[in-house]
Amino acid sequence: MTGFSEIEPNGFEPELGGVWRQKGVYVDENICIGCKNCTHVATNTFYIEPDHGRARVFNQDGDAKELVEEAMDTCPVNCIHWLDYTELKQMESERRNQVIQSLAIPPNMRRSQIVKRSLL
User: Which sign, positive or negative, has the C-alpha torsion 49, 87, 70, 101?
Assistant: First the structure.
């Protein structure tokens, strides 16, 4: 019988807990309308980011996969996605340079915009 410590890493282990989930959940905040549905469905995974009023993931392994998928399926603007962990890390890094558009812009007209800030 093999113990947990004897299992060889396969490159798919999440960085924040769960051992076997191969993808992480990501919220595209430029599409999010801040309805709070996901925070009510998967309370241990999502929260509303206070500066822009959009949903964000704070714990990848906070809720069962089924609850996260329910939050995804019931999102009115489909802004929650599963991403490979390498892609997830890149998207979270790029979020620092993201321009969050006003909630006054209709959701179907919003687009994620990654803009590079120039150093002055």
Answer: positive
pLDDT higher than threshold 90 for residue 49: no
Structure tokens belonging to residue 113: 């915009």
Query: H-helix or E-strand containing 26?
Result: strand 23-27
Whole-Å CA distances, 34 to 15, 23, 95: 27, 23, 17
Q: Tell me the C-alpha distance between 91 and 27, whole Å.
A: 10
Q: Is 80 exposed, middle or buried (0-12, 13-18, 19+ CB in 10 A)?
A: buried
pLDDT of residue 106: 63
β partners of residue 78: none
CA nearest to 78, candidates 110, 102, 49: 110
Model pTM score: 0.66
Which CATH class name applies to 13-109?
alpha beta
**83-97 b/e with 16+ CB inside 10 Å = b?**
eebeebeebeeebee
